[in-house]
Amino acid sequence: MSLRHHAALLPLCLSLLGTSTTLLAAGAPVKERLKAPTGPTAVLSATSSMGTATVTVDGAGAFQDALVYTNADGLTADLSWRSALFIDGTQIEANDVKQKSTQKAVSSFALGSLQVKLVQQLLPAALAGGYVLDQQYKLSNPGTEPVTLNLLRYNDSDMYDLPTNTFLGDFGYQPQGGSYNYIVSDVAPTPASLTQYIGVKFSGGDVPTSRAVRVCCSNYTDISPEENNTVPNDADQDGISDTGMDMAIAAQAPVTVPPGGSVTVKMKTVLGRSALSGLADLPAR
After folding, report:
1. What is each CA distance from 8 to 4, 20, 75, 82, in whole angstroms?
2. 133 closest CA partner among 60, 49, 66
3. Where is the secretion signal located (predicted)?
4. Between these two residues, 213 and 168, which has the higher pLDDT value?
5. CA 229 to CA 209: how far, in whole Å?
6. pLDDT of residue 164
7. CA angle, 236 as apex, 235 and 237 as ends, to 5°?
8. What is the Cα–Cα distance from 144 to 260, expressed in whole angstroms?
9. How far apart are CA 259 and CA 253, in angstroms?
10. Cα–Cα–Cα angle for 63, 104, 49, nearest 5°?
């Protein structure tokens, strides 16, 4: 059984200093296959009036743990177990990343015959208590033939009760007509409490991105037409899970890079703990 790093009882500053405690949370799901970053990493942080977010990324844009510290109650939520980009089911890896500032990192790597430049920034979001990780992959093709890739972003998150550190179960949410995929801690939030959430948006593919919240953890290759625009346990098909369980976010599209040209693929991950009057407060597009 894998161990998950939790900082629910510690201030974010302790996490940054590497003094967070490793715990086996009650009911914690067993995870497989998604690789933790093993090469160089950059620690991105952003501060708002509500608190601070920290995400440690590698040169390919993978990350393990996305920590949001809230000033009001002194608690830290870990909103991502692991997140990574895949090509035809194989996780992309890179062996270098450069920290440009506390909020920004850049990297360059080869992807087959393509050259990739990745810019990653963590910023406060418009929604109070929220943050956005903006990852932009510029794919350049120096060859004489077009190159097509099947890209899929996969994010596995687990929602825990704070401060008891007990697994609550994840709930999927897809805004109607939107572009984001969400995992949330509560399907009926009120402003009286803080709701945990993480959402992923993928743009820049050849066709509109397929999106799904799915039962964790399998299929890092594609999203079938039947699965597109769905969440698990949604009997009334309103885009909100009726019951919680271990879930993950997937967003997939083919990307064709023309000969001598380039394409920029954009990944946005919204995360936070916010006082919501309803799920509609979360960004849809």
Report:
1. 12, 9, 6, 17
2. 66
3. 1-25
4. 213
5. 10
6. 87
7. 95
8. 7
9. 19
10. 90
Secondary structure letter of residue 102 according to DSSP: S
DSSP class of 162: T
Domain positions in the chain: 4-281
Rounded alpha-carbon distances, angstroms, from residue 260 to 48, 112, 116, 269: 42, 15, 14, 30
Class of domain 4-281 (CATH, top level): mainly beta
CB-based contact 227:219 (threshold 8 Å): no
Q: What is the pLDDT of residues 101-117, one digit of tens each?
A: 999 999 999 999 999 99
DSSP 214-257: EESS---S---TTTTTB-SS-TT-SSB-SS-B-EEEEEEEEEEE
Which of 25-29, 66-70, 85-89 is predicted with the least confidence, judged by mean pLDDT?
25-29
pTM for this one?
0.88
Q: What pLDDT was estimated at residue 4?
A: 41
What's the pLDDT score for residue 75?
Answer: 95
Phi, psi dihedral angles at 165 (to 5 degrees): 60, 35
Q: What is the mean pLDDT of residues 3-25?
A: 37
- Cβ(120)–Cβ(128) under 8 Å? no
Residue 162 burial (10 A CB sphere; 0-12, 13-18, 19+): buried
Question: Number of C-alpha atoms within 13 angstroms, CB side, residue 141?
Answer: 17
Distance CA 79, CA 56 (A): 12
CA 98 and chain centroid, separation: 21
